[in-house]
């Protein structure tokens, strides 16, 4: 392909010149260094390969720009073992002044027996917005079967609320009590021979955002506080059976974006919560007071590129090979020098 003169000129650029095999010899020290260096290269390669396969999660913060719409989806699954579904009311109120009794969303109430068995599902009424400044407590047009309520109390029935609701993306609260049945409560208490409501409860699940997105995030990502109140249990003490106890949860909601390796984004909400209880002479309730952070947190998945992995592998092989050659050369020269001294009788 090339002429003799061209080939000789090309050979002058050879940086890896070869020695004839009869001019090289194997040594024991060289074999030991070779074995050790090969093991080191193998260990470093496995470590780098694991790093290449692993997925890192990076976080950053920026000001929220109303990602995810103007409504927040709240997912609920709460058991009230001593609170019948017949007088169960879920209300929402925010700082804009709107107050809704029986809110927008898809909620289902399930009757619970005294042993915790699910008895009957009841569709929760939705869409009852009472506008700005409306209070909505004690509306006289709420129908109620008083005999059924009395029987529910005598049978020690409870209620499970599950599903989701939509709330405005502003600070506010949603609370559970019997405000929608205020006109009936005095007669109900007399018939059931009770002094107040027992709002002992178990929070099976509470989260903010699309449930499908939350499930995908739990499977894919490691970071984030999405469901800190799950499995929270609040039981009314025996010494407070005749006194109303109001439970309050203070929730700080943080808009959060998750971006996976395919650049798909999930807009959900992290939150942290504190709680307290206090006795009251009025109708007890369970309040979930939420506030919104103006800052959005974003978690992004990243993976090391193949070119970076290739460079790292070359660095491992070249670096270990070079250092091993230096060590072998030092060891070999030292051994040869010692043997020469021993032959000359100068070792001592």
UniProtKB/TrEMBL annotation:
InterPro entries the UniProt entry points to: Erv (IPR045888), Erv_C (IPR012936), Erv_N (IPR039542)
Domain Endoplasmic reticulum vesicle transporter C-terminal residue range list: 148-328
GO-annotated cellular components: COPII-coated ER to Golgi transport vesicle; endoplasmic reticulum; membrane
Membrane topology: Multi-pass membrane protein
TM segment ranges: 27-46, 306-327
Family affiliation: Belongs to the ERGIC family.
Name of the protein this chain belongs to: Endoplasmic reticulum-intermediate compartment protein
């Amino acid at each position: 392909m090339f002429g003799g003169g061209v080939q000789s000129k090309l050979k002058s650029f050879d940086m890896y010149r070869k020695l004839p095999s009869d001019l090289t010899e194997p040594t024991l020290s060289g074999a030991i260094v070779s074995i050790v260096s090969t093991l080191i290269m193998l260990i470093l390669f496995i470590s780098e390969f694991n790093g290449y396969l692993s997925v890192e999660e990076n976080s950053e913060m920026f000001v929220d720009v109303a990602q995810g719409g103007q409504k927040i989806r709240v997912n609920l699954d709460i058991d009230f073992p001593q609170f019948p579904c017949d007088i169960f009311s879920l209300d929402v109120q925010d700082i804009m002044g709107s107050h809704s009794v029986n809110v927008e969303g898809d909620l289902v109430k399930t009757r619970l027996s005294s042993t915790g068995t699910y008895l009957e599902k009841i569709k929760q009424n939705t869409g009852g917005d009472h506008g700005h400044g409306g209070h909505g407590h004690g509306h006289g047009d709420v129908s109620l079967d008083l005999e059924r309520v009395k029987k529910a109390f005598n049978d020690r029935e409870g209620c499970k609320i599950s599903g989701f609701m939509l709330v405005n993306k502003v600070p506010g609260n949603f609370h559970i009590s019997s405000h929608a049945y205020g006109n009936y409560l005095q007669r109900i208490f007399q018939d059931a021979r009770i002094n107040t409501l027992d709002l002992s409860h178990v929070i099976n699940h509470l989260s903010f955002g699309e449930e499908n997105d939350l499930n995908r995030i739990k499977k894919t990502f490691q970071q984030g506080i999405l469901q800190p109140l799950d499995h929270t249990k609040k039981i009314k003490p025996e010494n407070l059976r005749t006194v109303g106890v109001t439970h309050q949860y203070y929730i700080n909601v943080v808009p959060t974006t998750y971006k996976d390796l395919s650049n798909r984004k999930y807009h959900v909400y992290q939150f942290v919560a504190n709680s307290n209880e206090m006795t009251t002479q009025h109708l007890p309730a369970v309040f979930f007071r939420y506030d919104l952070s103006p800052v959005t947190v974003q978690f992004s998945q990243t993976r090391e590129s193949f070119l970076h992995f290739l460079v790292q592998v070359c660095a491992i092989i070249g670096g270990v090979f070079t250092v091993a050659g230096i060590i072998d050369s030092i060891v070999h020269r030292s051994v040869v020098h010692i043997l020469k001294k021993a032959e000359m009788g100068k070792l001592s």
